Amino acid sequence: MKILAFGVQADEQPLIEKAFTDAGLGEAHCLKVFLTEDTAPIAAGHEIISTSVNADLSAAVLRTLAAGGTRMIAQRSTGFNNIDLDVARGLGLTVARVSYYSPHSVAEFAWTLAMAVNRRVVRAAARTRDFDFRLDGLLGRDMRGRTAGVLGTGKIGEAFTRIAHGFGMRLLGWDVAPNPECVALGMEYVDKDELLASADLISLHVPLLPGTRHLIDAGALRAMKDDAILVNSSRGGLVDTEALVDELRAGRFAGVGLDVYEAEAGLFFLDKSLEVVADDTLARLVTFPNVLVTSHQAYYTVDALEQIIEATVRNVGDFLAGRRGDNVLAG
């Protein structure tokens, strides 16, 4: 059995290849290219493929895969907003995801972004490389005693909250239901408007669904404090980026840390340094001195990768054995 894996990073490849071999499930052939409408024909003859978070699994791609003999798609991510599940079901494709991996990887990186923009770390590092050791413009704030607002208090939001508690912050949460672990830490659950108006640091940890798209829209941004810090390490579509740029142009926010971007497909994970990037919104976003954008790397730790790959191998094993595992979304 040959498994074709799309969108594999260099650090991932030996881990993926070894995991499938050790499990006795056959050979995993890893490709750097991402699954798109143009690359989908490469999968012809492969019964099982594995995809990354930015894969295009729209109707046209799924039809090409099915016509080429693909029967199972093992996505190496938790999110699945990129998959047309209705079409997959209609084609008889089995689709599985990774429903859980280390929440600490993402939560810790969210805090890395928050503290980097708060303490102006990127600007400071760039200055010292030029032997400019001035402190002008590098003024930050203590987190202790300030208010952290956590939108989404599942496993990742809970891990973020524990770190905020360690800083000695007041904790506000918003979710469909309170997390008892967060309540035990002293979190107060409030409505979204109150959280946005009260929080000094706002971090997003909700999935991207039709009801959460542009959860942080122009109105939500205007409701925030002028000196708030906004962090998004979840999904880019949670934030209306054009509205965010408008607020940044008006001189608002102490800092914005983004590990995701709503139009990141075709950009993130790729080297575009020798090309003209035509995305005017992203081009403007990265020019602001109080904004830090990273390339969807919050999950990228050895611990998380090992758990993601282990779950992916288990999903493939279940499929080959005719079992329907807990991670199956279609089929």
From TrEMBL:
Family annotation (CDD domains): LDH_like_2
> Does the record bear Calcium in its keywords?
no
Q: Does the keyword Oxidoreductase apply?
A: yes
* Alphabetically ordered keywords of this record: NAD, Oxidoreductase
GO terms (molecular function) for this protein are: D-lactate dehydrogenase (NAD+) activity
**What Gene3D superfamilies does the database record attribute to this sequence?**
NAD(P)-binding Rossmann-like Domain
Q: Where is the S-adenosyl-L-homocysteine hydrolase NAD binding domain?
A: 118-293
- EC number per UniProt: 1.1.1.28
- Catalytic class of the enzyme: oxidoreductase
* Membrane spanning residue stretches: none
Q: Which domain of life is it from?
A: Bacteria
Annotated family: Belongs to the D-isomer specific 2-hydroxyacid dehydrogenase family.
* Record protein name field: 2-hydroxyacid dehydrogenase
Query: What species does this protein belong to?
Result: Streptomyces cremeus
